[in-house]
Amino acid sequence: MTTKELFGKIYQAAQNCGYEIYVVGGYVRDLQLGKNSKDIDFVVVGDAMRFADQLKKELHLRTLVRYPRFGTFMTRYYGYTLEFVNAREESYSSHSRKPVTRQADLRSDLSRRDFTINTLAMDISPQGYGRVIDVYHGIDDLQKGVIRTPLEPEQTFADDPLRMIRAVRFAARLGFTIEEKTFKAIRKIRDRLKIVSQERITDEFNKILMADAPSAGMRLLDESGLLEIFFPEFTALKGVEQKKKFHHKDVFYHTLEVLDNVAAGGGDLKLRLAALFHDIAKPRTKRFSEQTGWTFHGHEVVGARMAKAILRRMKYPAETIEYVAKLVGLHLRPMALVDEEVTDSAVRRLIFLAGNELDDLMTLCRADITSKNPNRVKRYRNNYDRVVQKVLEVEERDRLRNFQPPVRGDEIMRMFDLQPGPMVGKIKKFIEEAILNGDVPNDHDACVAYINQHKEELLS
Ligand code: ATP
Ligand code: MG
């Protein structure tokens, strides 16, 4: 189904209710930029809930999700995601965050939208099809590449402080600049962000991280003062300290480079988060030694812990948190394996610890090379190639990924006539270590024999 046919049907359904309907927001904006999206927002001048019933009937929709409190509903149709909202006006009072909403016409609905580039509406009637309604000079701002609020910026942001992060999101994703007055308003009332729920903030933050070059958005978040509010551990990475002849690199800008490197390789959200957090504990672990200069011993261990706590606060899902903590905790290991004479058992340990995340870990480590010295970059890259080579060799020898100890707990209990308890765990650990050390192959019968051989030592 073409978009035009789709719009024809939707327009007809609105007509049958006696309502006006327009396409608004992202779809119209993206169309002006030459991008076609299947995510379409509509504004209904009328009762959206009644329109939902009509549309369901006419298009034979199976599922339709209603949010009557917000006057919105959404549905999917032939691969399109369609969202409908009542045209409305909102008024906010200073003592309550809950807006009072009233039915409104198209113009006042557009005025409560966040940015001029998002106030564009499109006529989908057969007579005026494709005509763009541009009350706030959104097309002009699209051409100039400017993010600006349609009304007084301070008021717009005070009404819904999430819009401040959305400003950064659109600037980062579209490569636009935030107009000066709008940006000043953000700096001025940035503290209001604190009243916004973490879930909404994280949603926008993720979109910023998924930009082609997310560092631009991170810089804007920093310059606007917003980052300090919801992610102060990251702004703490800024700055370089110099003592004697020693200085370390600015971890803030280094991390942004690593983030962009991972993004350039098409990294997904969780890998980008791992890049963002990999050096998060450097400020906390920083020490100075007169002889060797700055050190950050243990920053990967402390960092994994910090990443968990921060990501939990930011309401990320448990598996994302585990993944990021794992990569942060392991990000120094591959480099430690570049020595010529590194043992198989060290390589095996890395394969075992990283499991399915090994490829992502190597991607992160390569992205971590931000030296400006081309010879050094080349040497580091070669080192990683050698590590990967070693990993492949060892893997081929003992197929270790998704390593499962070949002797299970219940079998150990039977062999030794044990009750469940710490002794079972101790024996399992013993056999795991033996496999990783290469003392015994990763094979059931060999392991049983090996346990029997060491029976006395184990039980003593
Ligand atoms: P995309 O769908 O590409 O993320 P979008 O512009 O469509 O971008 P949505 O979040 O889908 O963004 O919102 C649709 C439209 O609703 C926006 O274009 C904007 O006009 C309006 N809008 C959304 N959120 C807000 C908000 N917090 N304040 C004001 N207007 C908003
Ligand atoms: Mg949208």
Automatic annotation (TrEMBL):
<feature type="domain" description="HD">
    <location>
        <begin position="251"/>
        <end position="346"/>
    </location>
</feature>
<dbReference type="InterPro" id="IPR006675">
    <property type="entry name" value="HDIG_dom"/>
</dbReference>
<dbReference type="GO" id="GO:0008033">
    <property type="term" value="P:tRNA processing"/>
</dbReference>
<dbReference type="InterPro" id="IPR032828">
    <property type="entry name" value="PolyA_RNA-bd"/>
</dbReference>
<keyword id="KW-0808">Transferase</keyword>
<keyword id="KW-0694">RNA-binding</keyword>
<dbReference type="InterPro" id="IPR002646">
    <property type="entry name" value="PolA_pol_head_dom"/>
</dbReference>
<dbReference type="GO" id="GO:0042245">
    <property type="term" value="P:RNA repair"/>
</dbReference>
<dbReference type="GO" id="GO:0003723">
    <property type="term" value="F:RNA binding"/>
</dbReference>
<dbReference type="GO" id="GO:0016779">
    <property type="term" value="F:nucleotidyltransferase activity"/>
</dbReference>
<dbReference type="InterPro" id="IPR043519">
    <property type="entry name" value="NT_sf"/>
</dbReference>
<dbReference type="InterPro" id="IPR050124">
    <property type="entry name" value="tRNA_CCA-adding_enzyme"/>
</dbReference>
<keyword id="KW-0479">Metal-binding</keyword>
<keyword id="KW-0460">Magnesium</keyword>
<keyword id="KW-0547">Nucleotide-binding</keyword>
<dbReference type="Pfam" id="PF12627">
    <property type="entry name" value="PolyA_pol_RNAbd"/>
</dbReference>
<keyword id="KW-0692">RNA repair</keyword>
<keyword id="KW-0819">tRNA processing</keyword>
<dbReference type="InterPro" id="IPR006674">
    <property type="entry name" value="HD_domain"/>
</dbReference>
<dbReference type="GO" id="GO:0005524">
    <property type="term" value="F:ATP binding"/>
</dbReference>
<dbReference type="GO" id="GO:0046872">
    <property type="term" value="F:metal ion binding"/>
</dbReference>
<keyword id="KW-0067">ATP-binding</keyword>
<protein>
    <submittedName>
        <fullName>HD domain-containing protein</fullName>
    </submittedName>
</protein>
<dbReference type="InterPro" id="IPR003607">
    <property type="entry name" value="HD/PDEase_dom"/>
</dbReference>
<dbReference type="Pfam" id="PF01966">
    <property type="entry name" value="HD"/>
</dbReference>
<comment type="similarity">
    <text>Belongs to the tRNA nucleotidyltransferase/poly(A) polymerase family.</text>
</comment>
<keyword id="KW-0548">Nucleotidyltransferase</keyword>
<dbReference type="Pfam" id="PF01743">
    <property type="entry name" value="PolyA_pol"/>
</dbReference>
